[in-house]
Structures are given as structure tokens and as C-alpha cells.
């Protein structure tokens, strides 16, 4: 089935009867996977299973994606500013160039995810699993990474200025040319 949310007529008809979040879930259940470029700001998709969906260039600012499974999704250049993704699963997800400023990714499984060139300035990544993730040229300045796992992650050229790096682990991480302007004491496992 080749379903696509980019049909304005479908959106306008169904939006009268169900919330946009429920609408996206229903479309996903019947086979839709392409939500690219859509304005979905403040959408509620809490605890949803959206594995493999395409949200490239979508506006998801302020969205509630807590506990959602977004594994293998395409969120390339998506706008996720101030979105909440607490304890969500984003394994092998493409977040290259995404705007995640001040987003809440606390406790997320971000293993093998790609954040190359992403803006995570001020984001909460406390307790997140970033094992094997790629954060090349990512901006993590002012981010909270307390207790995060960056084992085997590629963080070359990433900016961690002013980030809270207490109790992080980065065993076998690629850290060349990483910007670490650190103030105060740290407990880092490597």
C-alpha cells in the first residue's frame, strides 16, 4: 500500500474527527511511512510505534514523543526544538542536521543513531544510551549529558562547551578534535 500524508484533502477530512497525533498513528497502521516536511508541531505521539517512518524536514517542535519507538526513522533536518522524547527508542535513527535545541532526550536509547551536524544545544541527554552513535560536528554546548553512555561513539569535531559531562562513559569513543571546554571536576569513565 502506498499511503502518503502529503494529501491535504485527507488531512482536512480526518482532522475534524481525530487529533493529528491519532491521525498519524492510524495512517502509520495502514502503511503510511512518509510524513516528511509536514508541520506537526506540538503533536502528541507518546508511546507510539513509528519504526522506519520518514519525518525528514518535518516540524515537530514541542512534540511529545515520550516512550515512542522511532528506531530506523529518518529525522534528517527535522525541527525538534523543545520536543520531549523521554525514554524514547531511536536506535539506528538518522537525525543528521536536526534541530534538537532544548529537547528532552533523557533516558533515550540512541544507540547507533546519527546526529552529524545536529544542534543539541541545551538538550537534556542525561542517562541516554549513545553507544556507537555518530555526533560528528554536532553542537552539544550547554547540554546535560550526566550519566550518558558514549561508548564507541564518534564525537569528532563535536562541541561540548559548557555541557554537563558528569559520570559519562566514552570507552573506545573517537574523540579527536572534540571541543571540551570543561569547568569544575568531572567523573568520566573511559
Automatic annotation (TrEMBL):
Keywords: Repeat. Pfam families: Pentapeptide (PF00805). InterPro entries: 5peptide_repeat. It comes from the Bacteria. This is Pentapeptide repeat-containing protein. It comes from Tumidithrix elongata BACA0141.
Amino acid at each position: 500500500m502506498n499511503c502518503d500524508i502529503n494529501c491535504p484533502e485527507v488531512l482536512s477530512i480526518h482532522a475534524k474527527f481525530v487529533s493529528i497525533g491519532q491521525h498519524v498513528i492510524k495512517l502509520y497502521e495502514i502503511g503510511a511511512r512518509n510524513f516528511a516536511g509536514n508541520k506537526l508541531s506540538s503533536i502528541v505521539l507518546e508511546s507510539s510505534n513509528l519504526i522506519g517512518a520518514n519525518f525528514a524536514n518535518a516540524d515537530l517542535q514541542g512534540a511529545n514523543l515520550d516512550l515512542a519507538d522511532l528506531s530506523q526513522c529518518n529525522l534528517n533536518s527535522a525541527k525538534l526544538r523543545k520536543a520531549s522524547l523521554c525514554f524514547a527508542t531511536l536506535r539506528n535513527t538518522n537525525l543528521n542536521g536536526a534541530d534538537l535545541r532544548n529537547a528532552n532526550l533523557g533516558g533515550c536509547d540512541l544507540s547507533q543513531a546519527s546526529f552529524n551536524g545536529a544542534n543539541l544545544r541545551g538538550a537534556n541527554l542525561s542517562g541516554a544510551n549513545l553507544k556507537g552513535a555518530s555526533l560528528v560536528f554536532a553542537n552539544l554546548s550547554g547540554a546535560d549529558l550526566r550519566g550518558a553512555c558514549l561508548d564507541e561513539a564518534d564525537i569528532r569535531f563535536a562541541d561540548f562547551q559548557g555541557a554537563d559531562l558528569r559520570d559519562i562513559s566514552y570507552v573506545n569513543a573517537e574523540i579527536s578534535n572534540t571541543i571540551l571546554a570543561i569547568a569544575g571536576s568531572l567523573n568520566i569513565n573511559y
